[in-house]
Amino acid sequence: MKLFHIDLNDASRLDIAPSAATIGFFDGVHRGHRYLIESVMARAGRDGTGQSTVITFDGHPRIVLHKDYRPRLLTTAAEKVERLSRTGVDNCVVLHFDEAMASLSAREFMKTVLHDRLNVRTLVTGYDNRFGRNRTKGFDDYVAYGRETGIDVVRADAFTLNGVRVSSSVIRSFLSEGEVSMAAMCLGYDYRLTGRVVGGCHEGRRMGFPTANIEPEDGLKLVPRAGVYAVRVGLDGSALTMGGMMNIGTRPTFDGTETTLEVNVFGFSGDLYGHKLTVAFAAKLRDERKFPSINRLIEQLEEDRREAESVLAEHK
Questions:
Q1: Contact (Cβ atoms closer than 8 angstroms) between residue 172 and residue 222
Q2: Is 181 exposed, middle or buried (0-12, 13-18, 19+ CB in 10 A)?
Q3: Which of 4, 31, 91, 249 can pair with 188 through a Cys bridge, CB separation 3.0 to 4.6 Å?
């Protein structure tokens, strides 16, 4: 996949052949997105362009439009590009979204950016896709503008799975309720968080369950609902080969007040401080709750570990 980073202020010529393309933020690069991208690749083969292009943005457009907006992202910018590279698409264009970009009407965007700069000849839109200033235009408008600018505009069907119309917002809802298995079904992979290991309170070590306290590398990345989860763990960018269990919450047994993300990595005895861990959520084990004693908490942690090991042994 060829990767291009584009700024409207940069008028340099791009080496992109005429292509069939789609455009969107593609947060999560979930199964619905991949269905759309497959439609683009199929269209590229049928209409003779031969090239397929995904066009996305370097940041969430609403951050530019609403300065106080804080999105809850499913993927960081780097994760998104990496997942797009797995789709088999020929080109990925990352547009720098700023006020100048936001001010373009749909017609201007299609003419000056899609047609003139990016050499788009066929545009495949999602079933609910809208772009251009104020996002007031719809599919019929894009078709009309396409006729004016030399772009054939077609619309892809929605992707549904077990009666669920897959979208980034649906996946965020699942994760916000701790439904990581449902989120994984829609994503097509287990949801992940990456962060540095920072100092903690060491209660886990004293109980025989040493934990790594993770500080997410991107503060905009969505953290699933408080609870205990079975996870797979990777160290410093390595494969997710280690099993573990993760607690997200305020440690109510110790009267904690701040939310922490703590993972107990099974069988690991080294020093993790300063290292980067990636955790993939396999299943939720239980809600976080306050226990009447430390001993009762230790008993529960033993049960959690056994359940997590069982889940991970069967999880693919």
A1: yes
A2: middle
A3: 31
- Quick: pLDDT tens for 84-109: 999 999 999 999 988 888 888 889 99
Which residue has tokens 């369950």? 209
Q: Count other Cβ atoms within 10 Å, centred on residue 74.
A: 23
The letter for the amino acid at 23 is: I
Query: Residue 5 carries which DSSP code?
Result: E
Q: What is the pLDDT of residue 243?
A: 96
Residue type, 139: F
Give helix 168-176 / helix 180-187 axis angle, nearest 10°: 160
Query: Which of 15, 243, 16, 240 lies closest to 121, judged by CA?
Result: 16
Entry pTM: 0.91
> SS3 for 92-159, per residue?
EEEECCCHHHHCCCHHHHHHHHHHHHCCEEEEEECCCCCCCHHHCCCHHHHHHHHHHHCCEEEECCCC
What lies within 8 Å, CB to CB, of 39 at 6+ separation is 22, 124, 156
Contact 268, 242 (CB under 8 A): yes
Closest alpha carbon to 212 in 225, 223, 196: 196
